[in-house]
Amino acid sequence: MTPDATLSLRSQVRQILSAAWQQAEAELTPAGDSSLAISTPIMIERPADPSFGDFASNIAMKLAKPYRRAPMDIAKAVAAHVVTTAMDPASPIAGVDVAPPGFINVRISDAAIAATTARVLRDPAAWGSVTAEHPEHINVEFVSANPTGPLHIGNARGAFTGDLLCRVLTAAGHKVEREYYFNDFGSQVKNLGASVVAIREGCDIPEDGYHGDYVYELARDLPESVLAAAQTADEPVEWAIGRWASERVRSGIEASLERLGCHFDVWRSESTLHHDGWVGKAVERLRAAGDVYEEDGAVVFRSTKYGDDKDRVILRSTDDNAPTYFAADIGYLVEKFSRGYDRLVFIWGEDHHGYVARVKAAAQSLGFDPDHVQMILTAWVRFIRDGKEIAMSKRTGEFITLDELLAEIGVDAARWFFASRAASSGIDFDIELAKKQSSDNPVYYVQYAHARIASILRKAAAAGMVPPAADEARVLELLEGILPGVPEAQLARQIGRLPEVVEDAAESRETHGVTAYATELATTFHAFYRDARVIDETEPERSIARLALIAAAKTTLAGALGLLGISAPESM
RNA sequence: GCGCCCGUAGCUCAGUGGAUAGAGCGCCAGGUUGCGGACCUGGAGGUCGUGGGUUCGAGUCCCGCCGGGCGCGCCA
Predict the structure, then answer these.
(1) Is any atom of strand B within 7 angstroms of residue A72's beta carbon?
(2) Distance (Å, rounded) from C-alpha A47 to C-alpha A44?
(3) Which nucleotide is nearest to A321 (CA to C1')?
(4) What ipTM goes with this model?
(5) What is the pLDDT of residues A230-269, one digit of tens each?
């Protein structure tokens, strides 16, 4: 069979192994026994030891038991069919062998490696983006901190985690929308307004008020006209001032996030959710599903029916049966799905983990697939200075803002820091240590590799040497001429991994594989740089070929950094 | 008490049931008459918290225990 050359090499190998297995299966299945129609996913991995080849599969060991055959026998049978495939000139496979206890090891041809590299040069903008097997329209909601004060460093992880996930999902072929949900009418907003009014009028800040410097700035910036209008309105003055202050804080948050490289497509306010009737609609749908009951004057959702620990109140017994926060969230679920998303993703701090079951329960009762409502929980970050944890409270005003943190350590370093750790991993962030080590941050190692290549390309161009990126046939010819060389082969193979890295990151919803890959690619390039001189006037053909190769490496480094929202400098 | 997350090198962290458990930083010893030394090469450093179990194979899955974090509202 001829694999689809637009797929990642790994996917092509998977197709070939899958076909080979189907042929081998007939030989291994006892006559008359058709019960063994086992659909085993073909697992393909990059072996840790490169001497085993480019890809390895453990399928023979997985199938040994159901087929009651020795793993080595199965491996040999599959390998025999793969060898047949490898005779096809269009096949990317150059060789296959079997190793105990039953690994099938596959080596990719230089021609296929060259073809992948040439594709990078022909269409650099597309390199790193893959076609999803099942493309989805995904809504990712993150940060969603209430606009009662500027973002502090505790919000950093959610912001970066969400942004990184969106970038990776987009690159993996999904359509992604980024959403921020905020409360703009609750008692917190009223308290913020009361604090601003108190400062403006020279009174003491009330018991439940806010005390940060930003509250004083709000009081100072509050226009007289807004204050006057609020004082003559029907409602208490702190409400109108609270809404004004809250919107001002919200737009400040948006500006901070944009400075971090975190853009949001949708800003959704909780009050409009109520005004537009989504909360009432959601309650009615739960009622229609027969999943609500009344107790002591409150309306309760029977979430235990769908696996929650206890049932949850959605309409209070007090305040004229006002909806709870949870009820608003259910309304939000209905509203979001009405926009046509296939999947809703929420980035939450792990302190919200108790909330997962009830929201999924609500989704199920509403008739949505609970597996299409996905929560990613980020572990807590402890910020440490001078060996002590920094306590943070928005209400008392004791906190370090996100803007202050970024001023200290830089956006690229901060992004790398969070991208290189699993969401579930607790982090101790020592600010002094981060500042001290910032020049040793691996992100600069990767950026340096990119800048170094840019420098070489500039130098070559000045000497009249420019790789013919658009001429794919010529590039292929050049690359195949140098790929027998070990440094060239290693760099080209490393370049070809990017699509797999994107697929893995999207599927696992984790980005630390991207930082690891970027570091490995930079290391491979630096080794190449040491072993293979690029610009050599006495060898123009080889120089052009090597320039083409490092140009592809540069595009790939930029692609990996772009996935992380990190700049790829031409010089540094 | 119940539930969820975590425990891997001195430090910060990777590790999708597979081959000899890795990376960065730190430490030690080296390297450039040449394209950017923010680079490269080598080394020391591990009872994978602990005790059982499942498996051809366990850092990975299951159970117990120890240690740390978080949650268990008609708050948001």
Answers:
(1) no
(2) 9
(3) B74
(4) 0.94
(5) 999 899 999 999 999 999 999 999 999 999 999 999 999 9
